[in-house]
Structure to design on (83 residues):
């Protein structure tokens, strides 16, 4: 899927994948940590901000521990292609 808006990409793809893997509570912690470290808002993200947020999520130690470095990078690539 290409060309979805950043809100849809974040809600339907990024958060859903994190929730499937980590559960809702930890997924929200990961997103909030990434939002802070990337310095991006959680609403009305530009494409560039969305990509920075995804990079921060995939660099999160919890994500790397669960998916491995290559798995996190593969997921990042998939998410970046959404917008």
């Amino acid at each position: 899927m290409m060309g979805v808006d950043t809100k849809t990409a974040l809600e339907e793809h990024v958060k859903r994948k994190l929730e499937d893997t980590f559960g809702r509570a930890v997924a929200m912690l990961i997103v909030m940590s990434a939002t802070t470290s990337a310095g991006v808002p959680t609403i009305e993200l530009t494409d560039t901000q969305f990509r920075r947020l995804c990079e921060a999520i995939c660099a999160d130690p919890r994500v790397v521990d669960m998916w491995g470095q290559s798995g996190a990078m593969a997921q990042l690539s998939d998410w970046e292609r959404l917008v």
